[in-house]
Specification:
Blueprint: E1 23-28, E2 31-37, H1 38-42, E3 55-58, E4 72-75, E5 82-85, E6 88-91, E7 95-99, H2 103-114, E8 121-122, E9 125-126, H3 129-145, H4 155-174, H5 191-204, H6 209-216, E10 229-230, E11 237-238, H7 254-266, E12 275-277, E13 283-284, E14 289-290, E15 311-313, H8 314-327, E16 354-355, H9 356-380, E17 384-388, H10 399-403, H11 405-418, E18 427-431, H12 432-453, E19 455-457, E20 463-465, E21 468-469, H13 488-497, H14 502-515, E22 517-518, E23 523-524, E24 553-554, H15 555-567, H16 571-586, H17 588-591, E25 598-602, E26 605-608, H18 618-622
Antiparallel strand pairs: 1-2, 1-7, 3-4, 4-7, 5-6, 8-9, 10-11, 12-15, 13-14, 16-21, 17-18, 19-20, 22-23, 24-25, 25-26
Length: about 625
């Protein structure tokens, strides 16, 4: 920084006494003033000493004699008069600092000067006290927003993680495009963002998360789909007046994931018994029809036949979302891809596309819901739970129905038509143990169906799961030697959900390392090069390979891959995925970004991730 006078001195007080790091004493005109770590002094200060620069250097390397080692000097270069005085340095009109590890001495220094402000004279003008007091208030406000400290043994990593914690706050304020190179769009928030905002806040502002979760469930429709236009106020959802119908098949997955982590961290399982309304607009039957009776005057909250707004428990919302997804299947009995899943660029297979990847994900949800139900019974003493009467049809237990695509579709069709406009408002009681058994049977069936029909074996004990079917109903991934087709998403959720068995995880890791890992690119690519413009699956194949969704490194999916591996006991493999991301992001000469997790790395560009602290990196940090 080119300055002719020293404008500013970093200011910290005695919290540094609690650390084990070397602490330095900063002295101005022979008076002790503040305590700083050496890292805080050196970072960002130019190490060149000339007529225009302020710099630092170890005094023993400067040619000055009789000065103790580890002494650092910050110099106003217009006053370059140095004199040796005992073991310290006197600098005319400048500032010097000396290392002192004696904790008793540090405490005395803190009492004497560390908590005391100094008035600094700059070019003959006294600086405004009030201005700097307000500036300190602002600094404290934002510092306190990130109220989490990290101790990994690596100071660089610790600071990096604090920046990651700060990014969701910026994204909540400015939307998905808070930086020029961050994501695309107009800066608004989507359905996934609502839930993943809650995840970051769980460790930074936990008091407000409970109400946010309950309010967010108000965006769920009675057919298991959800609102896609988010209002500016908490819990506000807006009807799509443009009649643009698009259903993302993964949207019902995320709310329970967030709710589960909230319960795991707080023990507040009673949140499942809180009540919320359902969203209502023109769309009906999971986006395949329109409710001709709905009007703007009806409002955006689902009503019963008595014209009263219906409210169901959070648990009912969770069951409804996941059960509807179970029956919404394609011809291979995997869940339909619809408008897309997590990968928004898989958007051209609405008719016959299927997402095996998220069928795995939902299978994991079903098991976890059963676990929480048993905990609810044990903690609160409930033998049964109350649900909307119409939902009963979705609790089918026959494996013959599970195996039959036509019968599953018919069952779902009968449900969504029964609640197209108003619902009965009547409720029934369902035995908790029976419901748990029902959910676990559905989960087991999904997992076994995937293991049986979607595993791809390759040479040298490699293998992976097919993750998708295209709009021609064809399996997307393959192990053909001339053109291996592998996608990361299907492996992530197969591992995370428990669908992949231990030997299969080993094979997946070997395959991912060989076909997807690229250290120079920053880690695991989203897919291999398909060498085709596959527009019967999605627009992603219109990008050059390595650009955006077509083979870029997407941090969110890589972090989820790491989380899944940690969860299943593959620690070294999980660490490799995370460390490679961090190393690339921290290599400023390559990344050219502010500290944080970039959304993706493609070509020579980095894009910041709107899922900065997703539900899958939080457990890693908290553990």
């Amino acid at each position: 920084m080119k300055l002719k006078k020293l404008k500013d001195i970093p200011y910290q007080i005695a919290q540094l006494l609690a650390s084990n790091e070397d602490v330095v004493r900063l002295i101005y005109n022979d008076e002790p003033s503040v305590l700083l770590t050496k890292n805080q002094i050196t970072v960002g200060v130019n190490d060149l000493i000339n007529d225009d620069y302020i710099g630092f250097y170890p005094a023993t390397e400067s040619g000055i004699k009789d000065i103790e080692r580890n002494t650092f000097i910050i110099i106003n270069c217009e006053d370059f008069n140095l004199q040796a005085a005992d073991k310290n340095v006197t600098v005319s009109g400048a500032i010097y600092i000396t290392t002192d590890k004696a904790r008793g001495t540090l405490k005395a220094l803190a009492d004497e000067g560390a908590a005391r402000k100094q008035d600094w004279n700059y070019e003959g003008e006294m600086k405004d006290k009030e201005f700097f007091e307000k500036l300190d208030e602002i600094k404290s406000y934002w510092t306190n927003k990130v109220n989490v400290s990290f101790s990994t043994g690596d100071l660089v990593t610790d600071n990096y993680l604090k920046w990651i914690c700060f990014q969701p706050i910026l994204r909540r304020i400015y939307g998905c495009s808070f930086l020029p190179y961050h994501d695309y769009g107009k800066g608004g928030r989507g359905w996934r963002d609502l839930w993943q905002d809650c995840l970051a806040l769980l460790i930074m502002e936990p008091d407000m998360v409970r109400n946010m979760i309950v309010d967010n469930y108000g965006g769920v429709r009675i057919d298991g789909s959800n609102a896609t236009i988010i209002g500016s106020k908490q819990g506000e959802f807006i009807a799509d007046r443009n009649n643009i119908t698009r259903v993302w098949m993964d949207h019902a997955f995320w709310p329970f994931v967030t709710t589960k982590l909230y319960i795991d961290q707080t023990g507040d399982i009673e949140i499942l018994l809180e009540k919320a309304s359902y969203f209502k607009d023109l769309q009906s039957q999971r986006g395949t029809a329109q409710d001709k009776e709905w009007t703007v005057q009806y409002g955006n909250k689902q009503k019963s036949v008595s014209e009263e707004v219906y409210q169901g428990t959070i648990l009912e919302h969770v069951l409804l979302q996941n059960l509807c997804a179970f029956y919404d299947v394609g011809e291979h009995n995997q869940m339909r891809l619809r408008g897309a899943d997590w990968n928004d660029a898989l958007d051209m297979a609405d008719e016959k596309g299927e997402s095996v990847a998220f069928t795995c994900a939902y299978a994991g949800n079903f098991k976890d819901i059963a676990v929480l139900l048993r905990s609810l019974k044990e903690k609160c003493g409930f033998e049964s739970i109350e649900i909307l009467e119409e939902i009963k049809v979705l609790l089918e237990t026959s494996k013959d129905v599970f195996d039959d695509v036509t019968r599953k579709r018919e069952l779902l069709d009968s449900y969504v038509k029964s609640c197209e406009h108003n619902i009965s408002g009547k409720t029934i009681l369902v035995d908790v143990d029976e419901l748990c058994k029902n959910l676990e049977e559905k989960s087991d069936w999904m997992m076994e169906n995937i293991r049986k029909n979607e595993w791809i074996s390759s040479k040298d004990r490699k293998g992976w799961f097919n993750g998708y079917y295209d709009n021609h109903g064809r399996q997307v991934e393959s192990a053909a030697s001339e053109n291996v087709k592998m996608m990361l998403t299907g492996q992530v959720f197969a591992i995370m959900s428990g669908t992949a068995q231990p030997k299969q995880i080993e094979a997946i890791c070997k395959s991912a390392d060989e076909y997807l890992f690229d250290k120079k690119a920053g880690g695991y690519r989203l897919n291999t090069n398909f060498h085709e413009e596959k527009f019967d699956l999605g627009r992603m194949f219109g990008f050059a390979y390595g650009e955006k969704e077509n083979g870029a490194v997407f941090s969110h999916m890589t972090v989820m891959y790491a989380n899944a591996l940690y969860k299943r006991g593959f620690v070294k493999e999980g660490h490799k995925a995370l460390q490679t991301l961090a190393d690339k992001a921290l290599d400023f000469e390559t990344s050219k970004i502010y500290p944080g997790i970039p959304e993706s790395r493609h070509g020579r560009m980095f894009r910041h991730c709107k899922y900065i602290l997703p539900e899958h990196i939080l457990p890693l940090i908290l553990q």
